[in-house]
Amino acid sequence: MTATVEAKTEGTEGKVGAVPTFTVTLRIARYDPEVDSEQHWESYQVTAHATDRVLDALHQIKWEQDGSLSFRRSCAHGVCGSDAMRINGKNRLACKTLIKDVNPDKPITVEPIKGLPVEKDLIVDMEPFFDAYREVMPFLITTGNEPTRERIQSQQDRDRFDDTTKCILCAACTTSCPVFWNDGQYFGPAAIVNAHRFIFDSRDEGGSQRLEVLNDKEGVWRCRTTFNCTDACPRGIQVTQAIQEVKRALLTSRF
Amino acid sequence: MSATTSETNYHAGPDAVSAKTSRYRRVSKGRGNFELWSWVFMRGSGVLLLVLVFGHLFVNLMLGEGIHGVDFAFVAGKWASPFWQTWDLLMLWLAEVHGFNGVRTIINDYTEKDSTRWVLKGLLVASAVLVLVLGTLVIFTFDPCVDPSSTLSVCTGR
Amino acid sequence: MQTHKYDVVIVGAGGAGMRAALESSTRTRTAVLTKLYPTRSHTGAAQGGMCAALANVEEDNWEWHTFDTVKGGDYLVDQDAAEIMCREAIDAVIDLEKMGLPFNRTPEGKIDQRRFGGHTRNHGEAAVRRSCFAADRTGHMILQTLYQNCVKQGVEFFNEFYVLDLLMNTGADGVEHAAGVVAYELATGEIHVFQAKSVVFATGGTGKVFKTTSNAHTLTGDGMGVAFRRGIPLEDMEFFQFHPTGLAGLGILLSEAARGEGGILRNADGERFMERYAPTIKDLAPRDIVARSMANEVREGRGAGPNKDYVLLDLTHLEPAHIDAKLPDITEFARTYLGVEPYTEPVPVYPTAHYAMGGVPTNVETEVLRNNTDVVPGLYAAGEVACVSVHGSNRLGTNSLLDINVFGRRAGIAAAEYAANAAWVELPSNPASLVDGMVEGIRGRESGERVADLRRELQETMDRNVQVFRTEGSMKEALGVIDELKERYANVVVQDKGRRYNTDLLEAVELGFLIELAEVITLGALARKESRGGHFREDYEARDDVNFMRHTMAYRAPLAGEGFGAESALFADEVRLDYKPVTVTRYQPMERKY
């Protein structure tokens, strides 16, 4: 039921330096449990600028064509992690994906992220994802008396876990993982990334507890190093590498 | 609903909305080092198998007359030596367990229902046991002189 | 309808809300309601840092920090509050570090600090390194760290619960107390009544009244609007901060840290124009001054780009390795959204609506004021929604992250301690009637105007008329549009009539708050016939301490909850303005020069 698309450039009429506009078709997976028995596709045409993001196109649809289209979004510049979705088969943040970068000559498909229960249109139930996150004890664990001033940490030690502090819990990685798709029992890359952030923090004393959690049947050993998570991460975190570092820490008990 | 505020309870208190679909609800799994050792085994057996398999291929296909020299007598000659018996036994067990574990992983990754998973794993275990038992039996009970009219030197010398 | 009962209900799960929750949940039974997920809150978008006079890298003390805050706010700051904030800043930073926040470190392993706009040594001598930071993601780290600690403590969250009404009732002492809140559950469309002894508002700002803004789509002033409709005044709403360096055309924030690390603003001629406007600290002058200077360059024809409508942020003289270490995210924004490589090209920037200095008036204990002196027992506010007022007429960079931590903590403690001793206040009869009437009124309407059209008109008029430069004429024009929008709002229609995740309906409700607050902002600005901090009148360019060294207090007639129906008027006919004196302790107003 896809409409064929002519994503033609309409030229740069008007002022010099004006951004070119073009027409693009979005094919969106729609599902409203109040009326639909199953997911179906709908196509929408929007006029986009070269600087527009997929989120702008979704807004244009919601605001001008079909107000019932539902999706989450907040900051709109890739730091809040609300709008992870599957765009042309890849997990991305809609607010960080320029339309011109996802081949607007063909219809752009937009689906909810995979492996979590779909609640409506592009909205999924995030609770299983946060359950896994909470299980890895994602917080600083220390013992003994607190120092009066800050804890001392060298910049070198700080750099060891810098990459994994960037996580915004958007779930793009976890829901790009084929192992997670299967039954959702695997902890998933995001939970492991957040465990990594503390395991390798020199101030933390809960590393072995977290490693024990991740040694679970559904822990790091289910990772097949397909690198889907690393490709999906909108923050550029080397997710697979972080998972491998946790495996190494489990094998060597050194972290 | 009551808030758990105890500082030692590191597992979060109840959230307002919990996963509604049971398929997605995370169920607590057993701990232990099984998956760790299974992971280590796959790497270790993989490396060993490289040596064993290529050694096997080299001896069988490259040395002497190469593939033309492989016949009943050749095999019989090899298995007369405890060295080659051990080599082949190792190769059999490592390859079978490595393969078994790999398929187990694939079953875990791709089956969605517990029942399918159990059926497939049952078949897998049965086939692995069959191959291992038969293979081991062959290696140790192999009788080069099973044919009474054999002209092989090990038999004729008897 | 469901009813819940908690000692403390916190509305909003950003920095202030979660900091309050960490205090309150260890003391008493606490629920945190948020219309998002906690980690989606806009605290996470803050970049540059959080100032505290730790003196880790050079001499500093909190008294200098207080002076900078007062001067930065153009003397409209309540100085007792600023003293508390700057004094408690040190502990606030140390507390975060102990909770696990990964600050950048000095060679000795202490928390590193860097320069930031308006922060100076010894009362304005030179820029000082006071901002504690984690690359250019300090807000992200604060939000994550606070959420992590909420997980650790098992704080009870109600995610995607949109609070639409504040319940008040007369207590035993004959005074109006806070009694709870009414929330709309996005997932189901169900209405929940939360009865509480203390209610803490930590709902953030209202940047979406403007078109070009660094704020999230969800920052629609809900908390301010809810309180205002129930008769709580709003203080200093005309003071809105425009951040100098938003990505041109998009408004996405590029931290002041870019200039703190050595970035320079240039006009089309390549001139470092800030040398003319603030000879001493140049590009690191407070935000209002830099934003106005930039707008002035563009207005006088020295803007860059094909339409001469922006200026340039030049980082090209900095080492790429230095940029990567200290400013990774914002350079990524420039690449992603404008296709500009900051290593080699200057980045197009223009001021973007950033922060509401005003809000729900509170005292330093974060208790909400019903007038210039009396508090509403059981009602607290902290963060951007509140006006303590530590920011006066212009907030200094980094002081918002400080505000949420210092006053969020105070709010959590105060609310819990009040709840421990207070008696329950009865809920009003039919507590959900107002929300019910409002929501069903919108949902039930069959034809009318689109929410997006009204919102666009509002945002465009606010950008055109009530932005960096304001005049009586421009503001009267804006008020004309707002008046018209107030009437047209009664006809907005939503296409989605369902109950589950009805974000269409949500946007319609949000628009109501935006219109209401835009009016308060504009009326306050029109009445303030002077220029001070973030509020600049071209028809009254000087600061007028004789007539306007005072806070604006805006009041409206409260909505009656009982009997509110689909046809009832939401907006008040009249907003009444009053004034409140500024608390001055040590620093007498001086001319503000940098």
What does this molecule look like?
The complex is a heterotrimer of chains A (255), B (158) and C (594). Chain A has helices spanning 54-65, 127-135, 155-160, 178-183, 189-199, 207-214, 228-232, 239-252, and strands at residues 21-30, 40-49, 84-87, 90-93, 108-111, 118-120, 123-124. Chain A has 255 residues and is of the alpha+beta class. In chain A, a hairpin with a 2-residue loop joins strand 6 (118-120) and strand 7 (123-124). Chain B has a single domain (34-147), classed as 3 helical TM bundles of succinate and fumarate reductases. Helices cover 62% and strands 0% of the residues of chain B. Chain B is built from 5 helices and no strands. Chain B has helices at 34-62, 72-79, 82-110, 114-141, 153-156. The longest helix of chain B is centred in the first third of the chain and has 29 residues, at 34-62. In chain C, 66% of the residues are buried. In chain C, helix 1 (15-27) runs parallel beside helix 4, helix 1 (15-27) packs parallel to helix 11 (399-421) and helix 13 runs antiparallel to helix 14. In chain C, helix 1 (15-27) links the parallel strand 1 (2-11) and strand 2 (30-34). The longest helix of chain C has 25 residues, at 503-527. The chains are: A alpha+beta (255), B mainly alpha (158), C alpha/beta (594). At the A-C interface, helix 1 and helix 2 of A face helix 3, helix 4 and helix 10 of C.
**Percentage of residues in DSSP E strands of chain C:** 15-25%
| Terminus-to-terminus distance of chain B | 85 Å
- Oligomeric organization of the protein chains: heterotrimer
Gross morphology of chain B: elongated
The biggest sheet of chain B amounts to:
none
Helical content of chain C (DSSP H or I, runs of 4+): 25-40%
| CATH fold naming of chain B | 3 helical TM bundles of succinate and fumarate reductases
Q: What's the CATH C level of chain B? A: Mainly Alpha
**Count of alpha and pi helical runs of chain B:** 5
Low-confidence stretches of chain B: 1-22
Categorize the overall geometry of chain C.
Answer: globular
Q: What class, by secondary structure content of chain C?
A: alpha/beta
CATH architecture of chain B: Up-down Bundle
Number of strands of chain B: 0
Radius of gyration of chain B (Å): 26 Å
Main sheet characteristics of chain C: 8 strands, mixed
Number of H- or I-type helical stretches of chain C: 16
The share of residues in extended strands of chain B comes to: under 5%
| Name given to the CATH homologous superfamily of chain B | Fumarate reductase/succinate dehydrogenase, transmembrane subunit
Order of helices and strands of chain B: HHHHH
Instruction: Show the largest interface.
Output: A-C, 64 and 65 residues
